[in-house]
Design goal:
Number of domains: 3
Oligomer: single chain
Number of helices: 11
Radius of gyration: 32 Å
Largest sheet: 5 strands, mixed
Strand order of the largest sheet: 1-2-3-5-4
Structural class: alpha+beta
Helix content: 55-70%
């Protein structure tokens, strides 16, 4: 939140300079603006509360609160133009999924409610400032700059107190609510990918296997050699189907990660990489299961990128704990040029980590080397019993 030191008012002057006249204009406009804000707050809250028992009550209240945000925005702009006060803009509300989510996000919006409170308290203050300023213009002319400065400073404090973001927590809550939609979309995309892999892979092989075994059953008496060849082919299909199912299960959540933790799981990934990978995991205990999973899949995708695009001769994976954060870094000596904006893979990792309050940083100049650093919350869990 801004404080007085962030936006110091210009010093008071005996001369009637432009700052004084701007403050006077602001104080004289307080009354009509306060009257409009008071009427808006009373009407919107009365309608919303009075019709709350009906279907239209909450939507009307939500619309009124959305408008209150707009009135707060106009008051901040007025204070910026006439009082030289720059107040940080509150975080925008998440869009939400569906009409009910939209209504609920507006009804519980603290920024809008403080704007409505601002509209209530401004009416008596607007009457006071208008009256005192008019009297000063007519009677107390020599001390007008000081009177205007005192009243304007009270206005500044009121704008800061009611129309600025309450604290950093409010901003973080809005960001995390927005990120929750990313998590839902990612989970839905993963489910679609699993369904597609099952349908096009293992399921198709099992159907072909069933047909082959059916044909072999028909030929087992008439043509034993052909039946044996079909059974042998079916045996090969079974092996391929089992391998595809293992790969799919590993893509969902590998057993080695659950049973033995990140060290063993990342070593398993490194063994499948097309370049030599050195793995170093320095963890005295295990983080939360969800954090382990995100770290595993992050390293897995980064090493796949090394195999496909980096043209590297070697790579390294380092994992360690730093206070309440899980840190991981993947480096390679390839050609570099990795760009978050260029591919969906790195952008997807950024969104996945951001959804759990993580950080994802890529340093990959043209010509290499490439270093990717990820930071995740720790969230300790108990170790499983052996």
């Amino acid at each position: 939140m801004s404080d007085l030191t962030d936006n110091p008012p210009p010093p008071a002057r005996f001369a009637y300079g432009r700052h004084t006249w701007k403050e006077v204009a602001h104080l004289l406009a307080d009354l009509p603006c306060a009257l409009a804000g008071f009427l808006y707050a009373v009407v919107t809250i009365a309608l919303g509360a009075g019709l709350a028992v009906t279907v239209v009550g909450l939507p009307l209240l939500a619309l009124g609160l959305s408008g209150a945000r707009g009135m707060g925005r106009s008051e901040r702009a007025r204070a910026r133009r006439l009082l030289g006060l720059h107040v940080e803009t509150p975080s925008p509300l998440p869009r939400g999924h569906g009409f009910l989510a939209w209504v609920w996000s507006r009804v519980k919006d603290p920024v809008a409610w403080r704007s409505q409170l601002y509209g209530f308290v401004r009416l008596p203050w607007g009457v006071l400032t208008f009256g005192v300023t008019m009297v000063s213009l007519l009677v107390l002319w020599p001390v007008l700059p000081f009177v205007a400065r005192g009243l304007a400073n009270a206005d500044r404090a009121m704008v800061r107190g009611l129309l600025s973001p309450s604290d950093e927590l409010e901003r973080r809550i809005a960001e995390l609510e927005s990120d929750r939609g990313v998590v839902v979309d990612t989970a839905a995309a993963d489910l679609r990918r699993i369904e597609r892999d099952l349908h096009d892979g293992a399921q198709a092989r099992l159907v072909a296997l069933a047909m082959g075994l059916g044909l072999a059953k028909e030929k087992v008496l008439d043509d034993p050699e052909a039946a044996a060849a079909m059974v042998d082919e079916a045996h090969g299909e079974v092996k391929l189907a089992l391998q595809e199912l293992r790969d799919l299960a590993r893509g969902i959540h590998p057993a080695v990660l659950t049973d033995r933790g990140l060290d063993a799981a990342l070593s398993s990934i490194a063994a499948r990489c097309t370049v030599p990978v050195k793995v170093s995991v320095d963890l005295a205990e295990r983080p939360a299961e969800a954090i382990e999973g995100i770290a595993y899949f992050t390293v897995s995708e980064l090493l796949q990128n090394v195999s496909k695009h980096a043209k590297a001769r070697s790579a390294a994976v380092d994992v360690w704990r730093e206070e309440d954060r899980l840190m991981l870094q993947v480096r390679d000596d390839g050609v570099g040029g990795a760009d978050l904006a260029a591919g969906r893979g790195l952008a997807g990792l950024t969104e996945r980590l951001g959804a759990v309050d993580g950080v994802f940083v890529v340093d990959s100049p043209e010509g290499g080397p490439t270093s990717v650093t990820a930071e995740l919350p720790w969230r300790t869990r108990s170790l499983p019993h052996p």
